[in-house]
Amino acid sequence: MKTVTLAVAAVGLLATSTLALEPLTIKGSKFFHSDGTQYYMKGIAYQRSPLDPLIDKKQCQMDAKLMKELGANAIRVYHVDSSADHTDCMKAFEDIGVYAFIDLDDFPTYIEQDGPPHWNDTQLTAYTKTLDNFAGFSNLGGVFVGNEIITRSNGSFAAPYIKAAVRDVKAYMEEKKFARKIPTGYSAADIAELRPNLQNYLACGDDMSVNVDFFGLNAYEWCGEETDYHISGYDQLNKNATDYPVPIFFSETGCNVPTPRTFKDQFAIFGPEMQDVWSGAIIYEWIQEDNKYGLIDYGSADPKTAIGGDTWARGGTPTPLPDFTVLRDVWSSVSPTGVKLDKYTSTNGPISCPDSTSGIWNVNPTSALPTLGQTAQAAEASGTPADRAAATTNSGAATTTSSQNAAGTNEAMVRLSGGLVAAVIAAAALL
Length: 431
Known about the structure:
By secondary structure, this protein is of the alpha/beta class. It has helices spanning 2-18, 57-70, 87-94, 121-134, 159-175, 197-201, 234-241, 265-269, 322-332, 378-381, 403-406, 418-429; strands at 25-27, 30-32, 38-39, 41-45, 74-77, 99-103, 118-119, 140-147, 184-189, 214-218, 248-253, 278-283, 296-297, 319-320, 374-375. Residues 1-20 form the signal peptide.
């Protein structure tokens, strides 16, 4: 353990001494660059390899070159190997001005919606290993404690376990005296019945030691030529976020039904309708797969070496697809004005925690957060708000029972082909 710890520390020190891109800061509901200009995210979901796309220097350099042409300034990576050296890839993206937003969980340690939900030492240790690995990189934009953990309207009983993870990750940074506090947030599925309860719950009250520093929404509502700001429901999303006290952005977007994609929602997100409220968007996704969301294509996989029967190569020379060209042209034509840090005064004060609503939002706003090692009570998991202070605890290792979440916390994680998902889950089971 000491050897691993020292190696991770060395990676962090090296990153600090070699990378020039200054860390982002947060004030109120906005991200800022070190020069005081507002940061708007033009990001790409970059899970080229299902287990870790940030360990192949040559591949990262090739992809980074195209991302620069695209106009990207962020990537989101869902799974990484916390024991690997990510210096070369982080440097490749730093060199083109790209910040990385990293999910902390791995396949065995995501927070489950079913099972019932739990949060324990095994999960926290996995999260903090990933955090330690990346904390020294100045172009680490932030970390997610989960992706689409809640995937149905009555799944809100898992929300306190998300917030408990935020609390304990932040406490770890405080205890270890991190040079900077890494922004910590959550990426949510777009569940209409939960709007805006979940986003508000994760940021309610004035105790930032338990609240998210940012909130991401995975939304695929703006689809095709016939939709617009109002038809898509973006107007309602904007209304729900208007007084949000921390940055909010689209952590996945880019509807591909029908095709070809137009990415016209970007004009609203970075335009006068939404630029004062939202901090940008992450487009799903970089690599072409059976789901047809790709911006680039590595070609067909060699059937002799393909993982789990996957038909798409997951590395090689990236070739831009038509969606790449469309997105590049759209992004080059949107320039949100933003506000300077020294001119910005946040007027969004603390927001109230949402009241419990039977069958929809089953969280008692006055109930204590789960303690480390706690598992949801049966009554709570069935939809009845419970007094968690009286719940029994279980500090044992997490049991991975949800194949849906293990494959990437439902359809929006990596949307891998069925064969590849099976292979990834099988590999995860051996970890």
